[in-house]
Amino acid sequence: MKPTPKNWTRISSALFYQEGGKAIDWLCNAFGFEVRLRIEGDNGVIEHSELTFGDGILMVADEDNAKKQREGIHKSPKSLGGANTQSIMVYVDDVNAHCERARKAGAKIISEPKDTDYGEEHWSDRGYECEDLEGHRWWFCQRLREPNT
User: Fold this and answer.
1) Is 56 exposed, middle or buried (0-12, 13-18, 19+ CB in 10 A)?
2) DSSP of 76-129
3) Which residues of 43-53 are buried (b: 16+ CB within 10 A; e: fewer)?
4) Were 92 and a residue from 28, 30, 70, 98 both cysteine, which residue would form a disulfide, CB within 3.0 to 4.6 Å?
């Protein structure tokens, strides 16, 4: 593979919200993302944004803007009765502290932090699942043990 463009990751994801600006602020407060780029159009509509978490990048935009540009194919779970077409997993340093931070910010905790051990030849993680303010599903994990290979 060729190197990725400067300051970019090999894979990034995009999420769409009914209220993109509010979502950006909430994601930074609740989950610890940082705003790298925020492009607002008319009436504060988020046309494009780039949030970072470590070396990961998450793009966030308003679904109304996506409707104009891409015939409405991108939607918030809030617009789909809670349905998710993608879930995101993020590794954090302290999953218990992260869960409490998210809970205090209003995340709906779907499953409390718990350990999952896939056996000595695999790995062990501690993680939890939550929903954000518009229903996107997230998993946050902390690696407990690397595989014995």
Assistant:
1) middle
2) -GGGGTT--S-EEEEE-S-HHHHHHHHHHTT-EEEEEEEEEE--TTS-EEEEEE
3) eebbbbbbbbb
4) 98
In this model, does residue 66 exceed pLDDT 80? no
Is the Cβ–Cβ distance between 20 and 62 less than 8 Å? yes
Rounded to 10 degrees, the C-alpha dihedral 45/33/127/122 comes to 110
Look at 45-59, 63-77, 88-102 and tell me which has the smallest mean pLDDT. 63-77
Tokens of 145: 């043990």
Query: 8 pLDDT band (50/70/90 cuts)?
Result: confident
Render the burial of 105-136: b for 16+ CB within 10 Å, e for the rest: eebeeeeebeeeeeeeeebbbbbbbbbbbbbb
Which amino acid belongs to residue 118?
Answer: Y
Backbone angles phi, psi at 45, to 5 degrees: -65, 130
3-class SS of residue 72: coil
